[in-house]
Automatic annotation (TrEMBL):
It comes from Allomyces macrogynus (strain ATCC 38327) (Allomyces javanicus var. macrogynus). Gene3D superfamilies: YbaK/aminoacyl-tRNA synthetase-associated domain (3.90.960.10). InterPro entries: YbaK/aa-tRNA-synt-asso_dom_sf (IPR036754). This is Rho guanine nucleotide exchange factor. One of its GO terms (molecular function) is aminoacyl-tRNA deacylase activity. It comes from the Eukaryota.
Amino acid sequence: MTPATVKQVIAGLRALNLTHVARLYPVEHDYYHWTLARRMCRLNAPTRAHLCKSIIMENTRCPHNSIDDPAFSKYYCVIVQYTAKLNTQKLFNFGRDLKQRTISKKNYNFRLVDPEISEQLTGYGTGGVSPFGNEPPVFWLGAGHIDWKVAVSTADFVEATGCYVTDLES
């Protein structure tokens, strides 16, 4: 039985015309207790660096609550590799660069949102958040449910979503 949240991801993939390049994987309930190497093998990913997670970051100093302007939003979905650490200073600089540094530094402070807020914003719980330079250029993410994953071509994802791509690794 496919969970409703996974069906929501499938609908999102369909809306972005990514169903022909994405693959869904139901995984075992204890998946997050496994090592990254075992998860990599389970998903048939080429390396551990291909395993990614979606995290929702909040600009706590944003003077508004809107997400209408992607260049100065209250919240951002950031996709990071499990093998990398997010550098919040790079995120701060990238956020300011989106508006050519015309907005004061005092209006930026990024932090990870609480799981409850993440679920309110995305509709997905911990371990299932999905947004919708690796070889091959594919990444694996949560697919709306903790026991499901989705693999999608990086190029197709970027083209379909128009997302920003930048190095935020420490």
